[in-house]
Hints:
There is one protein chain. The protein is elongated and about 60 Å long. By secondary structure, the chain is α+β, with helices and mostly antiparallel strands. The chain has a 6-stranded antiparallel β-sheet with strand order 6-5-4-9-8-7. The protein has a 3-stranded antiparallel β-sheet with strand order 1-3-2. It has helices at 6-17, 27-34, 38-50, 68-77, 82-98, 140-147, 151-158, 174-187, 229-249, and strands at 25-26, 54-56, 63-66, 101-108, 111-118, 133-135, 190-193, 200-208, 214-223. Helix 2 (27-34) packs across helix 3. Strand 8 (200-208) and strand 9 form a beta hairpin. The longest helix is centred in the C-terminal third of the chain and has 21 residues, at 229-249. It contains 9 helices and 9 strands.
Amino acid sequence: MGRQVPAVSRALDILELFLTGDETLAAPDVVRRLGLPRTTVHELLTTLAARNYLVPVPDQPGRYRLGVRTYQLGSRYAEQLDLAAEGRQVACEVAAICDETVHVALLEDTDVIYVAKVDSTHAVRMVSAAGRRLPAHCTAVGKMLLASLPPAELESRIDGRELVAMTPNSVTGHDALRAALAEIRERGVAVEHQESNPDVSCVAAPVRDSSGRVVAALSVSVPVIRWSEDRERELAELAAKGAADLSVRLGHRGTR
């Protein structure tokens, strides 16, 4: 049996403190509970945060909460990512109804990662793949997820970030993005017209976990040759229903 690495053990000890029910931790908490040197704790917290296993808590300097990496690892253990497995099943059901491409994606920093995809049977369809990463502000799923963040967390993610355009229709101004996200919160679904692909429009709805937190979004993507206002309304309802069904599969029982 190989030798255990003390630094790795200490980093895991910090992460396991969250298993006791703590939602946030600061360096003094870790020093007190684990008996580690203050300098070591700061270095470990900095490293964990740099790798997105922890993230700073907005408006609470020095405090950390679990980051998306821990969610991804835990979900991977649970049936090779329950979200992907359940998401694909729901995506299949939605795609069977509309015969368009359906995605499920989650947010990482300012990007979206597609964890499930079901294709349309049409000859003209969106070309994409599970595992692909795109700028959140250019996609319906991404804008839905950004709109679901608490205001302070949203600002911490986008402040000072360049909003790179993928097409001439992409949102590149921070004020324009904030306005778009406010509209999405009001409407409850997000729509994207040729912002990530010049030939495709999408509509997306939020997916919630057992706590009611938005953890993913489900979208329907349609080539512009099959897009219309009536089709948008129809698919918005279908995406919302699919997202609600996936939320139930993830343990959500409320209306929000």
